[in-house]
Design brief:
By secondary structure, the protein is mainly alpha-helical. The protein has two domains: 72 residues, no CATH class; 188 residues, MetI-like (MetI-like fold, Orthogonal Bundle). It contains 14 helices and no strands. Helix 5 crosses helix 8, helix 5 runs antiparallel to helix 10 and helix 5 crosses helix 12. It is globular. The chain starts with a helix and ends with a helix. Belongs to the binding-protein-dependent transport system permease family. It holds the Pfam family BPD_transp_1_N. It is a multi-pass membrane protein. It is found in: Cell membrane.
Length: 316
């Protein structure tokens, strides 16, 4: 297992390095001049040139990349062009919304999907199975932003159980902040739960057809005991794979939902930075998102090693 984890860690590091190069290069080829965006189209060429030199944008690209990546490794993401604030502070403030939102959505999706997926598999080809698969297909086809709008109309406008948007802040109103994330979390979790439920059902049914399960059943083990004692652990590997991908998708894909519910999360920070040509924010935020996605996949690999004993023997 140590060789397996070492290979994954090396892949983690190389992936982050490659991502940093691609992100920095992509920002360089984007059209537009940050200095001109900050000063306005009526600014004189001398003022634009002076601001370009002040921001260090006139230096060679390799030199600016080296300064940027060494600063990131030391926790310094630079100073925002438009906000005049350390990028790390802006990112931390946004993460306080995006990460809890993604965790809430993932926990909700997992709880619903695992229960429904196992129940559907245990009642294969029965009305319960057909009904759950039909509902999951409907959940997959519903866009998250459209569901979010419907939830706002129902629970915020008509019933007035929740606010229509905004975020009061964890320090000012913890329970109010938690309530503000419930509807967005439900919007995000619905599609993910529908997908995960179908994957869970398929994985459980596939393991049920394995020879070792048939042997256990032939020895007199009940279907329920075989499910919880033999099938579930082996079926978790593909389920965990999808869960890792879904959580990474939730972290990186909250832009639309944050717009629907006016949440000042990481997605909104990136969107505003792109509009303002605040490249230092975009670079730092996208690299952080890439690191979080790769880290989630690395944790999934560790769970593989804990769940699948074959990795401990073969050190794949």
């Amino acid at each position: 297992m140590s060789v397996f984890l070492f290979k994954r860690l090396l892949t983690f590091i190389l992936t982050l390095f490659g991502a940093s190069v691609i992100i920095f290069a992509a920002m360089e080829i984007l059209p537009g001049d940050p200095a001109l965006v900050i000063l306005g189209v009526d600014a004189s060429p001398e003022a634009v040139q002076a601001l370009t030199e002040k921001l260090g944008l006139d230096r060679p690209v390799p030199e600016r990349y080296f300064d940027w990546i060494t600063g990131v490794l030391g926790g310094d993401f630079g100073i925002s062009y438009s906000y005049k604030t350390p990028v790390s502070e802006l990112i931390i403030d946004s993460l306080k919304i995006t990460v809890p939102l993604a965790i809430m959505a993932m926990l909700l999706a997992t709880a619903i999907a695992i229960v429904l997926g196992i129940y559907a598999a245990a009642n294969h080809n029965r009305p319960a199975d057909v009904g759950i698969m039909g509902i999951s297909q409907l959940g997959i086809s519903i866009p998250s932003f459209w569901l979010g709008i419907l939830l706002v109309l129902l629970f915020a406008v008509n019933l007035r159980w929740f606010s229509a948007g905004g975020f009061p802040g964890w320090d000012r109103d913890f329970f109010g902040s938690f309530r503000a994330l419930i509807l967005p979390a439900v919007s995000l979790a619905t599609v993910q739960a529908a997908i995960l439920a179908r994957i869970t059902r398929s994985a459980v049914l596939d393991v049920f057809r394995e020879d070792f399960v048939r042997t256990a059943r032939a020895k007199g083990v009940s279907r329920r005991r075989a499910l919880w004692g033999h099938v579930l652990r082996n079926a978790l590997i593909p389920v965990i794979t999808i869960m890792g991908l879904q959580f990474a998708n939730l972290l990186a894909g909250t832009v639309v939902i944050e717009s629907v519910f006016t949440l000042p999360g990481l997605g909104q920070l990136v969107l505003k930075a792109i509009n303002n040509r605040d490249l230092i924010i975009v670079e730092g935020t996208v690299l952080l998102l890439a690191a979080m996605v790769v880290a989630v996949n690395f944790l999934v690999d560790i769970l593989y090693a804990l769940i699948d004993p074959r990795l401990k023997v073969s050190d794949i």
